Amino acid sequence: MQEGRKNSAARWLWWAITGLVLIVLPFVLEKGFSQYYLYLATKVMVWALFAMSFNLVLGYGGMMSFGHAAFFGIGAYTCSLLLVKASCPLALAFAVAPFAAAGAGLIIGFFSVRIKGVFYFATITLSFAQLAFILAFKWRSFTFGDDGIQGIPVPALISTDETYINYYFFALIIIVICIFLLWKIVRSPFGLMLRSLRENPERATFVGMKVENYRLIAFVISAFFSGVAGALYAFLETAISPDILFWTMSGEVILMGLLGGMHVFLGPALGATIMVLLNSFITSYTEYWGMFLGIILILIVLFFPKGVGGLMVEQYQKWMKRKGA
């Protein structure tokens, strides 16, 4: 009983310190360093939400999707087009974006979850994502084609023209709510059933579970939160292009999950942090950033197969055992 109270108090202390750091961070970065570092911190948060949304499908559902960039891009394009072409209020455009992504997830997932085999599932999701990319690239009259959407109108309250602080806190509130909802989902009976499907789908089928239904629900939920991340990305950059729908974006988010640890809840967020910061750091020194980034990622995957987050959890558990002994 006493040990449980200590652990609970330690967790609350950890969350309190984390919250304090997140609140103080933008002021320290802007005043002590530069706006660019605050921009990077905000970008890390957006990518962290995207990576954690995707991990509901890969890490918890065991589905290797190469098409999640479609939902990220659909969220960004839906929000941007409603603001630019329909002059919708920001709240309405932002609310519609994740539902549009979830609708696309329902259509794509309906066909994908019935496919047997990891390779075929990855292939069909990739095909749908490339279809979305081609539509955005070629449908110039609607999506502005390869020119993308420039000058996305953002209200002065969260504008990034003079400072990123207001937008940082806006994104932080939205992302914290989304991560909390994802946490409740993975800790719910649905999340436990999803993990059982990942471990042994055949056995789950034998006990009467409808595998396709659970996977489809996870796919749609993941698409919804990916759409939220896409809308936040559009507000941050105030410009988007069809590249955010390309398959390489899906590849990046997969790497974030592998890098941070797919089976650790906050692992993909850690992977997103490492990827974004490494990308920014390496590109400031060389144009061959892709090669160096690839080498670093290969070394991490080879020597830390559970990801950086998995390694940290493993070391923490060993420390706790030694402490108990």
Task: Explain this structure.
Helices cover 77% and strands 1% of the residues. The protein has helices spanning 2-32, 35-58, 69-84, 90-112, 118-138, 140-143, 165-187, 189-199, 201-206, 211-237, 247-260, 267-283, 289-303, 307-324; strands at residues 149-150, 239-240. Strands 1-2 form a two-stranded antiparallel sheet. It is built from 14 helices and two strands. The protein has a domain at 26-246. By secondary structure, it is mainly α. Helix 1 runs antiparallel to helix 7 (165-187), helix 4 runs antiparallel to helix 10 (211-237) and helix 8 crosses helix 10. It starts with a helix and ends with a helix. The longest helix is centred in the N-terminal third of the chain and has 31 residues, at 2-32.
Brief summary:
The chain has 325 residues and is mostly helical. Helices cover 77% and strands 1% of the residues.
Write the layout of secondary structure elements.
Elements: H1 2-32, H2 35-58, H3 69-84, H4 90-112, H5 118-138, H6 140-143, E1 149-150, H7 165-187, H8 189-199, H9 201-206, H10 211-237, E2 239-240, H11 247-260, H12 267-283, H13 289-303, H14 307-324
Antiparallel strand pairs: 1-2
Helix pairs in contact: 1-2, 1-7, 2-7, 2-10, 2-11, 2-12, 3-4, 3-5, 3-10, 4-5, 4-10, 7-10, 8-10, 11-12, 11-14, 12-13, 12-14
